[in-house]
Each structure stands twice: as C-alpha cells, then as structure tokens.
C-alpha cells in the first residue's frame, strides 16, 4: 500500500479519483478535524457533527469521479457548510445562534405584530427573487445563514470586498423596494 503522507492535495485528488483508497484515507486524516471544528461552531452536538462530517466524506468518495476539485481544503469546508445547511432545512432545527433573534422578533404577541412580520418576510422573499442570482445568494448566505463575508467569499470563489459591495447594493435595493411597498400600502 502506497503512503500518501507527503503527497500534495492535487496528487491525492488524482489518486482518489482513480479509486485509490489510501489517497482517500489520507484526505480524511488531513481534513476531518478541521471539518469537525468548523461544524461544531454551528451545531454544538458532537454526535450530530460526527455524522455530518462522515456524510461529507462519504459523498466525496461516492462522487469522486464526477467532482472537479481544484482546492481540496476549500472544497471540503464549503461542502461541510452546505451539508449543515441541508441538515437544518431537513430537521427544521433552528441553529442556536438564530434562536435569540427569533424570540426577539416574536416578543410582541399581538396578532398585528405577527401579521406584519409575515408581511415583511414575504416582501423580502419577493425582493430576493428579483435580484441577480449571485447577489441573492450572497444576501441569503449572510442574513439567513449567518456566514461572514470572508466565508461567503471563500464559498463562492470571490473576494471579500466583492461580497461587501454586493451587500451594500442589496441594502440600497431592498430599502428602495420596501419604501415603494410602504407607499402602496399607505395608498390602500
């Protein structure tokens, strides 16, 4: 069995694509701890984190021939984040860092306040559907999934400054859109 301990990530990817289990094992050994730590920041449940990390590595092996991976570390971190996101959507578990915001938003329990929150969320969803795909993705990752601008830049392969510029443009556009909606509602 060939040792890959000194191999570059590119060599590991090529060997793994060819079905070499030793290369795959080396990738696992190099990156499992990083993925575990990255995931634990968001999930806070060791058993669930282990399952999610395993899911990423299983997917890597199963779809190895179809994947076009240029930067292994970045690819695995982005895959991990999407796996966590899919897990949130599938299980409907609200991440711990979102719960306080939800409780604050719903602290006023009269019916009108809940209706207004639903209306605003609906307006934002409509506005988001009208945005260019990349801008909508950046907005969603920042404000609905709570990723940092640096993380978003890495995930999407763009600079942090580009992410910041897109967020500024988004705010301006959203503010203008909501102003128009408010004017229409006032007329009705």
Automatic annotation (TrEMBL):
GO biological process terms, semicolon-separated: DNA-templated transcription initiation
Alphabetized InterPro entries for the sequence: RNA_pol_sigma-70-like, RNA_pol_sigma-70_dom, RNA_pol_sigma70_r2, RNA_pol_sigma70_r4_t2, RNA_pol_sigma_r2, RNA_pol_sigma_r3/r4-like, WH-like_DNA-bd_sf
MF terms in GO: DNA binding; sigma factor activity
The RNA polymerase sigma-70 region domain, residue ranges: 27-92
Annotated ranges, domain RNA polymerase sigma factor 70 region 4 type: 132-167
Keywords from the UniProt entry: Sigma factor, Transcription, Transcription regulation
One Pfam family hit: Sigma70_r4_2
Family: Belongs to the sigma-70 factor family. ECF subfamily.
Annotated protein name in UniProt: RNA polymerase sigma-70 factor, ECF subfamily
